[in-house]
Specification:
single chain; 14 helices; 50% helix; elongated
């Protein structure tokens, strides 16, 4: 009778907590061979890699009779009423592990995020035309705050999250969208940090952003922070006359963006949300030149700022796989 490779038992235990073997396998180094796990030291190595990849207690993986246990942290879930925290729990811990790895390649002391969004806006406008996704990413990089876009997650996807580890913060974005979509998501997450919504090591998970009407005080504060950071004031855009085409909405938004130093895509999205004209806003966004994929832009800025010499080859490969 053939002996079962111990790595298979390890994958089976992970599947019991919602991590598919196919996903877990991708977090192992490319040089990994399952034969390595047939000796005790090799199995321990696999346990170490997998515990790191999913923010899991190494001791719980090392004991085959113990339940697999995620590391204890402060956990805040900002979810749609139809979504259970268990739906995004595994994804949040995986994203936390990715964020903690990203922090290794940034300066050890971060600049504080102002509680007053207007102060941060004024600072960015000293060197940029408006608060856009590129200018906000550039500020985050200078401040030592990693911002990552992780598209593939082991369970249900969230829009964004803040991770705090040893008094340093990282932001993980995951919902596909234009640069202007992700601009608001990032600004919202910075609002969580600026307002001190995470007091200890852990995470705040936003399954959906821009739905502060749910009544959550933290979400209202983070949304208000984002609006003020991007616009300089609280505003919902409208038009004096009917805008019947995407081109017309783009032209009107562009004129206002130049006058008020506001991201043109944000004006379009704000208008579309306020006026329930989402299809029109989608058409208008197509007239904006440049990179249409916000996630690609986020990770371009991340790799420009990340010190690859600060991590091992295996750690770098883990990050590259997560951000692919």
């Amino acid at each position: 009778m053939a002996t079962v490779n111990p790595i298979q038992n390890l994958f089976a235990r992970l599947s019991q907590v919602g991590i598919a073997a196919s996903f877990a396998r991708k977090t192992l180094p490319s040089w990994w061979s399952d034969d390595i796990a047939t000796i005790p030291s090799g199995l321990q190595q696999a346990q170490m890699y997998l515990s790191r990849a999913f923010n899991i207690s190494l001791a719980s993986l090392a004991d085959p009779k113990a339940p697999v246990t995620f590391l204890e942290t402060e956990r805040k879930f900002k979810l749609n009423e139809r979504v259970d925290p268990a739906d995004v729990f595994v994804s949040a811990h995986y994203a936390t592990a990715v964020a903690k790895m990203a922090l290794k390649g940034f300066k050890p002391t971060q600049d504080p995020i102002p509680k007053d969004a207007a102060a941060l806006r004024d600072h960015i406008l000293q060197s940029a035309d408006c608060v856009s996704l590129p200018s906000l990413l550039a500020w985050c990089a200078q401040a030592g705050i990693p911002v990552l876009y992780v598209h593939k997650l082991p369970a249900k996807k969230m829009t964004g999250m803040v991770v705090r580890d040893a008094d340093r913060f990282a932001v993980v974005l995951s919902r596909k969208g234009s640069p202007s979509h992700l601009l608001f998501h990032l600004a919202h997450e910075l609002g969580h940090i600026g307002h001190g919504h995470l007091t200890g090591n852990g995470f705040v998970v936003d399954e959906k952003i821009g739905d502060a009407d749910r009544g959550d005080a933290d979400e209202k504060e983070a949304d208000a922070y984002a609006i003020r950071l991007i616009n300089g004031k609280s505003v919902s855009y409208s038009a004096a006359g009917a805008l019947r085409s995407g081109a017309a909405l783009y032209r009107a938004a562009f004129a206002l963006s130049q006058k008020e130093r506001i991201d043109v895509g944000h004006i379009i999205l704000n208008y579309g949300n306020t006026q329930k004209a989402h299809a029109l806003a989608t058409q208008a966004l197509k007239h904006i030149a440049g990179e249409p994929d916000g996630g690609a832009l986020v990770n371009t800025y991340f790799w420009q700022s990340f010190d690859t010499e600060a991590v091992s080859e295996d750690q770098l490969e883990f990050l590259q796989t997560a951000l692919a």
